[in-house]
Every structure is written in C-alpha cells, then in structure tokens.
From TrEMBL, chain A:
This is Thiosulfate oxidation carrier protein SoxY. The keyword Signal applies. Residues 48-151 form the Ig-like SoxY domain. Pfam families: SoxY (PF13501). It comes from Ramlibacter agri. The gene is soxY. InterPro entries: SoxY, SoxY_sf, Sulphur_oxidation_SoxY, TAT_signal. NCBIfam families: SoxY_true_GGCGG. Keywords: Signal. It comes from the Bacteria. Residues 1-31 form the signal peptide. The keyword Signal applies.
Amino acid sequence: MQTRRAALKQGLAAAGVAGAGGLFAAAPAHAFNKSAFQATSVQDAVKALGGSGALAESKDVSLQGPEIAENGAVVPLVGASPLPGIKLLAFMVEKNPNTLSAAFHVTDAVEANFSTRVKMAETSPVYAVAIAADGKAYFAKKEIKVTLGGCGG
Amino acid sequence: MAEPMRIRAQVQGSGAVVRVLMNHEMETGQRKDPNGRTIPAWHITDVTATLNGKTVLTAEWGPAVSRNPFLQFTLKNAKAGDKVAISWKDTRGDTRTDEATVA
C-alpha cells in the first residue's frame, strides 16, 4: 500500500528532476555563444558578446594575474569592476588561438568580481573586459609572460 | 558521469564568497595525439549558479579555461543556511549539478 507520505515524496523527487532539467532551458539567452568564442581579436569578441562602440581602457576595471606564468596551462586571473550596470565580465587572451576565454553574465545578486584559471598559448596581453548594459565596453590590460605554453602541441 | 565538484560557500559581510573546483578535462581541440590526429575539443561551455533555486550567475566558457576549472564569485546577499547550486554543461552534452550550503 502506498501511503500519502510516500506519494508526496515521489512527487517531490520528480519535480526536482524536472527543475534540474529546466535549469539551462530557462536561460536560453545566455547559451554558449559560439561566434564569440571563435573570434580571434579582442574587438571581434567584444562585438560578438553584445558590446557596441569603442573599447575604452578604464581604471574601474581591474585585472590581477601573475607577471610571469611558469605554466601556461594554469594562469590564475581575477577580474573585477565596481562600475554600476555591468552585465558581462569576460577574460580574453590576445594571442590564444581564440581570444575569448570565459564570459560571466552578471546579475544583481552577484558582484562583478570573478576568479578563474585560464590556459595561455604564449606570452600575451590579457584583458578583463566589462560590458555595461548600454553596450559600452571597458577593459583592463596586463601583459603576462609565459615560459611554457598551455595549449600543448 | 563526471566526478563531483567541490563547492565552498562562506559568509563574508552581508554576502558570501563561493569557490568551486570542478573536475573536467577541458580538452582544447588544439592538441594532437601521438599519431598526429587532432584530439577533439571537450570542454565545459555553460555554467549556472543558483541561490535558493534562483539563477544568480551564468557563464560561458571556452576551451581556454584550465583543466579542472576553478571559479570564485561573490554573492551580494546570502546568509548561512542558504543553498548554492552549481551546474555545468559540456560539449558532449554531459551535465552535472552539485549543491552546497552557505556556512
């Protein structure tokens, strides 16, 4: 015999599965943006991510990383911007086969401050690009030297 | 199926710092195997973070994110006991979701 409690539990479990499945379906606007990741210049990548107008270097965007990365496969980066209305923060490595490494869609619930690790093929300028809701793009740039490339060959 | 993620969410001020360590090969599609054939790309493309079931962050990742990716972000309003869930999807269509409690 199935008790009411057991039936409720089953129902909840089913709802949980449906909820997890819907996680990505619920946010189709931010699905993987293939053209942005195929861009080979900072300008093109910003355009593909929805930035309009010129890129401007800004003191309100910060990028932290090592001066010299001994291992190009693991380069820790921290990008942040205290500017209001930032909707996207992206890491770009100019001389990688594809410029864009990662893009973060910022909501009101999180700060525009992200850390991650990226691969670098060779010594290159690295950009943290913040795109505001009005499409303006601000960036911070840092040259990171790589002694051993991270893309393998 | 992929290995579980390690998620730590710690209260800091009125918010919380979330650190995530994922288990993934993140193959770039640039490398070649010993026979000269290109190893196909296999990497995480979409990352979603939710706080108590509400989406707070989505990210798109390319193959240039390091193997076994690390991610840190800051929630503006979170308190101890809140549930943070992280999901990812890779180029093979695999997904994984793990949850942690803010402490």
